[in-house]
Amino acid sequence: MNAIHDTGTVGVLAEVGTPHARHDARAGTAELGTGKPVPWDGRFRIGSATKTFTATVVLQLVGEGRISLDDTVEHWLPGVVRGDGHDGRAITVRQLLQHTGGIPEVEGDIPALHTAAGYRAERLRTYTPEELVGLAMRHPAPAAPGTFSYSDTNYILLGMLIKKATGRSWAQEVRTRIIRPLDLADTMTPSSFPFIPGPHAHGYTAFDTDATIDVTEFNPSAADASGSIISTAHDMNRFYTALIGGRLLAPAQFDEMTTTVPAPELGADYGLGLGKFPLSCGGSYFTHPGGLSGYQTWVGVTPDASRSVVLLVTGDGDGDTQQAMIRLVDQELCRSDAKSS
Length: 341
Known about the structure:
Low-confidence stretches: none
Largest sheet: 5 strands, antiparallel
Distance between the termini: 26 Å
Strand order of the largest sheet: 2-1-15-14-13
Order of helices and strands: HEEEHHEEHHHHHEEEHHEEEEEEEH
Mean pLDDT: 95
Shape: globular
Number of strands: 15
Number of helices: 11
Helix content: 25-40%
């Protein structure tokens, strides 16, 4: 934990879970200038780890026969994926989940995520999913369909698809299908609410300058179904352990989720809303990294769900931060009492 903090991060919190116990550790501070430690039950923006929640809902709907992975985007969202060579008739639900549909990234069109001036001017701006997709459609496809190319826009489209299939927002479905059944009391889908309620660590970024600013206040509608959830280390451990342990998806849908393709951008393999990373001791673990507006997340769960790690970090850190995070997860999952086959 200290090694991660020493890379220039502000606060670090981790929880390791086993069937019989949980172990927590922390380093740094919750808020610059105060000396306050990161709260043990502190809430964080989990960023793209949200995608696993969204994918789980989609695959539950697949299991219920309400959606097919082979359905086209055009079937559910006619006319939405069009322009600049884009064709929703040629992109499937599976490809959205897997980032292999050639959908461009919208993140670069969000000023609040890229400069201090943009953050100050637009941190409270509300985006609709349709607006976000429209911004993305102005860009050419980053890769041909069938080739992995990570894009938040895929999961914004999946959020729209969930609403079309159920009549309820993706956030309502996540609350009904995941948050309430698992009693994730400190997990929330904030919509456009820009604050983090309850105990939390502040998020910080320097926007590639020498001046770090507090970016905790942020309207997460810019991330929507791709990255807006707020949670805690304990709740995330419960969610990922329940998912990998078979409590949220039928075997057929879990097999689909964990069937992977190479994802060179991530240095790993990627399934349907879930990544698969190698362990130094052999075998692999399931994960979904996340990052949004001053917060970084890394999760690791062994394939038998016997051991899990959630790591939450605030601040940018430096070029060594992510590797330090990965080393901690690897270390804890490779302990002699961990199962990693």
